[in-house]
Amino acid sequence: DAGVIQSPRHEVTEMGQEVTLRCKLISGHNSLFWYRQTMMRGLELLIYFNNNVPIDDSGMPEDRFSAKMPNASFSTLKIQPSEPRDSAVYFCASSPRGGNEQYFGPGTRLTVT
Amino acid sequence: DQQVKQNSPSLSVQEGRISILNCDYTNSMFDYFLWYKKYPAEGPTFLISISSIKDKNEDGRFTVFLNKSAKHLSLHIVPSQPGDSAVYFCAASPRPAGTYKYIFGTGTRLKVLA
Fold it and tell me: Considering only residues 41 to 70 of chain A, which have any Cβ-Cβ distance to chain B shorter than 8 Å?
C-alpha cells in the first residue's frame, strides 16, 4: 500500500493567492483528518471527516480555510486568500473503520511570502 | 489552551541509556493515549498507545506509563539508540477508536548521542 499521499510536498506562494492542498487516503480507510504543525502550537487538528461527512471543523482557523471530500478517497484543503501566518506544514491522516491509529501523509510545507 | 502539554521541547540522552519523555493533560475525559514519532520531512508514525484502564503498556524497547490521578503519562525507551532521534508527540482522545479526534502536544525532540 502506498500510504497516505499528499501533494504538493512544497508550496511557495505570495500573500493573497489561493492555495489548494491535496490528500489521497489509504484504500479502505473511512476517516480523514487535516492537521497543521507549527513550532508554537505543535500538531493542531483543523477538521476531520467520517464517511465523507465533516464531523468537527472547530479547528479551522478562519473562513479563509475550507476542506472538502468529493469522494471516499480524496480530500482538499483550500486557503483563500493566503496570508504569511498560514505558513506551516500541513498533514492529512486517515484511519480505518474502528481503528485506533491514524496514518499520516508526508505533509505539505507551505510558505506564504 | 493546551489540553496536552509536553513541557520539555528537547532531550539529549547517551546511546544505551534510558530516555524518558513526559506528557501532561488537563481533560479528565481523555480515555486513550498515544505516542507518535516523527522524523524530519516525514509524517508522524504511530509508536505505542495505552487505554485508561491500564497503567502500563510495553512493546519491545518502548513502554508507556499512565498515571490517571496525576493526569500524566510518560514514554520510556530502553536502551536508547541513535535511530530513536526524532520528535515525539503524545496525543489524547476521549474515545479509543481512530475515528475520533486526537489532541496532540507540541512535541519533544529527542537526540540520542552515539
Answer: 41-45, 48, 50, 56
Out of A4, A41, A101, name the one closest to residue B98 (CB): A101
Place of cell 490528500: A23
pLDDT at A6: 97
Any bridge partners for residue B53, and if so which?
A: none
Per-residue pLDDT tens digits for B45-79? 999 999 999 999 999 999 999 999 999 999 999 99
Q: Kindly report the nearest CA distance between residue B58 and chain A, in angstroms.
A: 17
Count the neighbouring beta carbons within 10 Å of the beta carbon of residue B66: 19
Interface of A with B in 73-112 (CB under 8 A): 91, 93, 95-107
Cell 499521499 belongs to A5
Residue A31, pLDDT above cutoff 80: yes
pLDDT tens per residue across span A48-104:
999 999 998 989 988 999 999 999 999 999 999 999 999 999 999 999 887 778 999
d(CA A93, CA A106): 9
Distance separating alpha carbons of residues B67 and A80, to the nearest angstrom: 44
